[in-house]
Amino acid sequence: LETKELWDKFHELGTEMIITKSGRRMFPTIRVSFSGVDPEAKYIVLMDIVPVDNKRYRYAYHRSSWLVAGKADPPLPARLYVHPDSPFTGEQLLKQMVSFEKVKLTNNELDQHGHIILNSMHKYQPRVHIIKKKDHTASLLNLKSEEFRTFIFPETVFTAVTAYQNQLVS
Questions:
Q1: I need a labelling partner for 74 at 20 to 30 A (CA). Which of 41, 111, 117, 148 fits?
Q2: Cα–Cα distance for residue pair 25/135, rounded to 1 Å
Q3: Distance between CA atoms of 108 and 120, rounded to whole angstroms?
Q4: For 18-61, what is each residue's pLDDT tens digit?
Q5: How far apart are CA 65 and CA 119, in angstroms?
Q6: Which CATH number fits domain 2-159: 2.160.20.10, 3.40.50.10260, 3.40.1260.10, 2.60.40.820?
Q7: Which DSSP string corresponds to 15-70?
Q8: Could you write out the three-class secondary structure of 114-150?
Q9: What sign has the CA pseudo-torsion 98, 103, 105, 110?
Q10: Do 27 and 20 contact (CB within 8 A), yes or no?
Q11: Share of the chain above pLDDT 90, in %
Q12: Bridge partners (DSSP) listed for residue 113
């Protein structure tokens, strides 16, 4: 995880990410670099964002903290965000950082733009996946037959909000 210091600062406060109907970019942005990849191989890099638990939260201003406010809303359709520059060569991945700055978060369940759909006042964990692409693979339909790794950075957990709740985060 690149810009880890920034993520750590937000994590201490309780990271919040704004979601809007039209889609909003993440801040901080997920940026990663890879090592140990085969320079000759091709890789697909993607991200998804999954619920941390089955709870809904509310922000208690008098305590400046997030409290459990009940059971989670039904989960929204899970979406994978395939990095637009995929597939990468292993050589590219060894030399450059992969940035997910174009990912947008929305609360619009009918979104047609490929944004990641989240429920407000719920906690989420972004995950980065790297898949070694086989020459004969045209699509990602069967992940079980592919070589892949998933990376989870606990400091990137966030609460989806329509407006910042904690003054220190804004």
A1: 148
A2: 33
A3: 11
A4: 999 999 999 999 999 999 999 999 999 999 999 999 999 999 99
A5: 19
A6: 2.60.40.820
A7: -EEE-BSS-EE-SSPPEE---S--TTSEEEEEEEEEESSSEEEEEETTTTEEEEEE
A8: CCEECCCCCEEEEEEEEEEECCCCCCCCCHHHCEEEE
A9: negative
A10: no
A11: 87
A12: none
The two structure tokens encoding residue 21? 């109907």
Q: How far is CA 162 from CA 30, 49, 107, 113, 121, in A?
A: 20, 17, 9, 19, 8
Q: In one letter, which amino acid is 2?
A: E
At 86, which amino acid appears? S
Give CA–CA dist 31/3, Å, rounded.
Answer: 7
Q: Tokens for 61, please give them.
A: 């201003």
Q: What is the Cα–Cα distance from 165 to 81, expressed in whole angstroms?
A: 27
Residue among 79, 57, 81, 84 at smallest CA distance from 69? 57
Give yes or no for a cis peptide into 75 (omega within 30° of 0): no
User: Tell me: the pLDDT tens digits for 50-106?
Assistant: 999 999 999 999 998 999 999 999 988 889 999 999 999 999 999 999 999 999 999
